Amino acid sequence: MQNDRVVWYNPRPVTTDACRLCGNTQHNHLILKVAHWASALGVMDVAECGSCKSAWFPAMERFLVPYPDTQIILQDPDFPYYIYHYLEIVGGLDWKVSLLERLLFTPFRSVLEIGCNAGVTLDYCRTMWNADTVIGLEPSAYGVMGSRLLEVPILPQYLHEASSLQGKCFDFIYATEVLEHVADPLIFLQEIKRSLTPNGIVLLTTPRAGALNLQTPAGELLAALSPGAHYFLLSPEKLADLASQAGFAWCHIEPFGMTQVCVLADHPVTLANHVWATSRIRDYYQRKTSQTVADARVLLGHWLNYHTYTCQMGLPVEATVITEIETALQTLFDIDLAQPQGLLERVAATDSLVSLGKVMPYALPYYLYWRGGDYLPVAELLVLQGLKVDFQNLFVYDALLDKIRAAQPQTATSLYQRFQSQLKRFSNRLVRHNHD
Questions:
Q1: Which of 13, 36, 299, 363 is the residue whose CA sits 20 to 30 A from 90?
Q2: How far apart are alpha carbons 397 and 406 in whole angstroms?
Q3: 149, 87 in Cβ contact below 8 A?
Q4: 3-class DSSP state for residue 70?
Q5: Which parts of 83-142 are beta strand (E)?
Q6: Which residues on adjacent β-strands are paired with residue 6?
Q7: Half-sphere exposure of residue 82, counting CA atoms within 13 Å on the CB side?
Q8: Mind giving me the DSSP string for 91-129?
Q9: Residue pLDDT, tens place only, 142-187
Q10: Is 0.85 surpassed by the pTM of this model?
Q11: Any bridge partners for residue 202, and if so which?
């Protein structure tokens, strides 16, 4: 599949550029061109190796954009809202926990996560595994702010820069969607090997070259390619070869959607079958709601996620949970769900991810969806506004919109009747989503 940002070559021209992964120069082809995430930098070619079957970006160094200065970002008063957005709805626990829980984690006394973003998964390991030591590495501002809000130890460094970790080894090292960001994957894997205990285990995920095909939707292709951020997409054969070169005696690789999961060790590792993560994530959020949390909005996010995962399991929600959530909504946002017209007017005036996050928690539509009944039309309008102001960052609302509309009765609800004029004004200010 293609759109104006992803165009396949047909026929595929030969390129003499050497493969970034294996150095091969024979039978290499350009397979597609893709727009750089920074439009001013134009279009990038993607090549496929005729030998190792990996894909890479020729002349990648020309397209690199330096990360913004962390201190400048941290001084931006709007930046915390990007962290709240991440913590409330896109933290990734739904798929990461399903991988983590396939491991026999009880022997892990120390955990290192490389590229931990705001630290949600690291906090999960600390909370659910009872490891003695958990440390994250994240050079971006997300790590600095996440460390503050979740109170989890995150170093704002790359692995080779972390002098405080030199000579330290960990029972478990975890890195999701990191390998493709490094210029030399072999050196990176060798660094990990030196940081692993003799009986330790490594779990990696990285986009797979086999996902680059005409049947893959353009949006998923763009996510896998991340043009301007990723150097390559590995074939499983080349990933296994790199692991062997790095000194790992045992390697297991399997596809996982657009990406691939790789488990590395010096001994065979038993993996459980696919794990249904919902109950474990619910337990995590339940534990978080019982702990002292310095940031009141982070605590509200824990309550909202606990509510969502409880409902997903079909379990009854305790009345105290509803009380905690709605008291926090009133205190932090002046939201009274019994009188939603004020909320709707404030949301209708938003024009960005940040301005939306200032008037409501990003997880609020999920809460309203699970409450059902009269709350559904309000949830629908909030989701529509979210998709209007920032579809890229709030794309998860798209699937929620389908669920909300499927759950609503065909006749107007009492909430519509009670606040008909306010809801009508709000609706008129929206650009209707393409599901209409």
A1: 36
A2: 14
A3: yes
A4: helix
A5: 110-114, 133-137
A6: 3, 34
A7: 16
A8: --HHHHHHHHTTS--TT--EEEEES-TTSHHHHHHHHHH
A9: 999 999 999 999 999 999 999 999 999 999 999 999 999 999 999 9
A10: yes
A11: 173, 264
One-letter amino acid for residue 262 of the chain? C
Is the pLDDT at 249 greater than 90? The verdict is yes
Q: What Rg do the C-alpha atoms of the chain give, in angstroms? A: 23
End-to-end CA separation in angstroms for the chain: 24
Q: Which residue has the tokens 């060798």?
A: 190
For the chain, the average pLDDT equals: 92
pLDDT of residue 415: 47
Residue 75: its pLDDT value, please? 94
List of residues 6+ apart from 412 with CB closer than 8 A? none
Q: At what angle do helices 296-312 and 364-371 cross, to 10 degrees?
A: 40
* CB burial readout 84-106, b (16+ within 10 A) else e: bbbbbbbbebeebbbbbbbbebe
Residues 125, 126, 129, 132: is their CA dihedral positive or negative? positive
Report pLDDT for 423: 54
Nearest-angstrom CA–CA distance, 181 and 254: 20
Any long-range contacts for 337-343 (C-beta under 8 Å, 24+ apart)?
Answer: 337/368, 337/375, 337/378, 340/378, 340/415, 340/419, 340/422, 341/419, 341/422, 341/423, 343/378
pLDDT in tens, 8-59: 999 999 999 999 999 999 999 999 999 998 889 999 999 999 999 999 999 9
Of 63-77, 193-207, 233-247, which gets the smallest average pLDDT? Answer: 63-77
